[in-house]
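Readers of this paper often ask what the protein records in our data store actually look like. This encoding replaces a full spatial description with a residue-level series of whole-number codes. For reference, a complete record is included directly beneath this paragraph.
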Amino acid sequence: MNCSRLMVLLSIAIVTSANTHQLNMKGMDMREIIDAYLREERHLQRSETVVVPEPKVRLMANTGCFWSGTSPFCNGFCGKGFNMIVKDKSGDGIRCWFGIKKLCCPLQG
């Protein structure tokens, strides 16, 4: 349940608990109100387009390559036996605040 739905349900709960006498006079209880809200929520249509950028470098499975450096303070380093292929602020995930990530692949030989 997302935050906005939870806030609506909590608001309904507060209002109904504060006005229990009025609601009982109308023949409604908390469960009916929540059920009505959830039924209405099911009918809402949401369309959202999410643009996912193409990765700058495609990794092939079982190549031994890896991204070095962990956000937020990245300090990518390719150790002995590895060659730095690409430097990038985001690399394979969350963008670095400081420093840079490096794509490291085994030396050919």
In short: The chain has a mean pLDDT of 75.
